[in-house]
Amino acid sequence: MNLFSNDSFLGRILDRVSSFVLLNLYFMVCALPVITAGASLTALYYSVLKLHKDGDVSVTRLFFRSFRQNLKQATAGWLLMLLLLLTAWLEHRFFPQGSSPFGFLFSISILILLFVDVILFLYLFPVIAAFSNSLKALLLHAFYFAFHKIGYLIAVAAITFLPMYFTLVDARMFPLYLLFWLLCGFSVTAWLNAWFFYRLFRPHLGGQDAAKASDSTPDSYVF
After folding, report:
1. Do the beta carbons of residue 41 and residue 125 sit within 8 Å?
2. Residue 131 phi/psi, 5° resolution?
3. Average pLDDT over residues 171-183
4. Which is higher by pLDDT, 207 or 89?
5. Which residues sit opposite 131 in a β-bridge?
6. With 108 labelled, which of 4, 44, 138, 218 sits at a CA distance of 20 to 30 A?
7. CB under 8 Å to 32, separation ≥6 — which residues?
8. Among candidates 63, 76, 78, 69, which has minimal Cα distance to 29?
9. Torsion over CA: 128, 134, 136, 141 (sign)
10. Per-residue pLDDT, 220
């Protein structure tokens, strides 16, 4: 057997690595306008969920198809997240926090806004990638999945935020971390998270997988 053939062990590893590098590049380029970052993250999660589900897939076709199909909905979700973050910043900047009753209430409200933002950042875009529904319903689904298995929420948060934390605080290793993020960091993080998301979503997919064999059919899962 040819060592580098697609069917060989090494060939499969190289194929997966190339998929990660391509997805990472697509994600960064499509997220550059900032306003499209939500759609880019949704397309990234759609692609890695399909990697977990089907294995050998065309990540280029999947990424850009999801990006087009989910652009409006994912952008609306992204803008909602930014609005919540802006509200928390304005409260922190212009309203008192501290030991007074009003200060305590403002501090609690800021923490709640930031917590909601974190949940949406972690779960909303995988949910948009996996299910077709109104944005309001998808927001509710995001919170449902986040608290359905708290262990998964902790794992996804750790996988997402710990590498970012070490990248920012470890100045000596920063060039290596930066190279990792530029090559495959975002796609590998999404792929690791998708292991949990796919197991969360799978019981809600029904028998639709087999019915979606045609490329002409939108490949979003539906509740």
Report:
1. yes
2. -130, 145
3. 93
4. 89
5. 221
6. 138
7. none
8. 63
9. negative
10. 47
pTM reported for the whole predicted model: 0.86
3-state secondary structure of 64: helix
**What is the per-residue pLDDT across 16-69, written as a single tens digit (0 to 9) for each?**
889 999 999 999 999 999 999 999 999 999 999 999 988 878 899 999 999 999
For the chain, what's the residue count?
Answer: 223
CA distance 69 to 220: 9
**Phi, psi of 97, rounded to the nearest 5 degrees:** -125, 150
Q: What is the mean pLDDT of the segment spanning 60-86? A: 96
What is the C-alpha separation between 189 and 192, in angstroms, rounded?
5
Give just the sign of the alpha carbon dihedral 89, 95, 96, 100. Answer: negative
Q: Does residue 192 contact residue 103 with C-beta atoms inside 8 Å? A: no
Residue 29 tokens, joined: 């380029």
Give the pLDDT score at 211: 31
The DSSP annotation for 6-43 comes to TTSHHHHHHHHHHHHHHHHHHHHHHHTTSTTHHHHHHH
